Amino acid sequence: MQLAARPDLVCDDRSPDLREFRLACHRFHRLLLSKSRPFQIANLELAMHLINYCRLFLQRRNITRLDAQAIGLQLSTLRSESTRGHFVFPGLNIVAAIVQHGQKVGWIRYCVSPLNDRVYISEFEVAYDQQRRGLGQATLWKLWQQYQVPLSPMHEKGSSIGFWAKARKRFAAAGVELTPNISTAQHPGEQQRWQHLIPESEFERSMREAMASPEWPAIKARFDAEYGPHWEG
């Protein structure tokens, strides 16, 4: 028996995929209980197929449930800007309203890495009267659907720790990475990854051109006399 490792498994309780999955489990169980047949290479290959099939099946089932949970939910961008000095510059800092069936139920502030390899979630709130309805996880899932990269919370603390722990576990079951919290102390290390993408400022360009000119020694001497040595630092 061959078990196709297909990512498009249908996970409805009445689906042929689920029936095939249950039949494979039943046959594998009988195989394990059999004392008359040696557990040879072919049987080991069957076991590996079944394990892979189970993993894909369960992953697809979790994806289907998260998709259903996010039905009717949208992220409506309120502001999108790239500001020098911001954590992800020259990436985008975005504020979006969380809208479900036309009603605003919260908001989220996040930023996109200039490498387009991660989304950092800085602030996130669901209206009090809309909480405990799964809208928080649905919002994160909608965000992942939009960018298809790992999500990183940046202010995981207090009462939100439990929420992030549950979301991290559930997203992992769907094959999606929700990274550990990125603290302020870790920002410089993250920024080093896209340091080469930060454009030179007008002031930096002017200084570089001035220092490369033949007049620079005279200019420097005049400024040293007026402002003291090491003024440029």
Description of the structure:
The chain starts with 15 loop residues before the first helix and ends in a 6-residue tail after the last helix. The chain is built from seven helices and five strands. The N terminus is likely disordered. With 233 residues, it is of the alpha+beta class. It has two domains: 54 residues, no CATH class; 116 residues, Gcn5-related N-acetyltransferase (GNAT) (Aminopeptidase). The radius of gyration is 27 Å and the shape is elongated. Helix 1 runs antiparallel to helix 2. Strands 1-2-3-4-5 form a five-stranded mixed sheet, covered by helices on one side.
Quickly name the level 1 CATH class of the largest domain. Alpha Beta
- Provide the structure class: alpha+beta
- Report the average pLDDT across residues: 83
CA(first)-CA(last) distance = 73 Å
Beta-strand content bin: 15-25%
Residue share in helices? Answer: 40-55%
Task: Describe how the helices and strands are arranged.
Elements: H1 16-33, H2 41-69, E1 73-81, E2 93-100, E3 103-112, E4 119-126, H3 135-147, E5 151-153, H4 160-173, H5 187-191, H6 202-212, H7 216-227
Parallel strand pairs: 4-5
Antiparallel strand pairs: 1-2, 2-3, 3-4
Please supply descriptive tags for the structure shown above.
single chain; 233 residues; elongated; 16% strand; 2 domains; 5-stranded mixed β-sheet; disordered N terminus; Aminopeptidase; alpha+beta
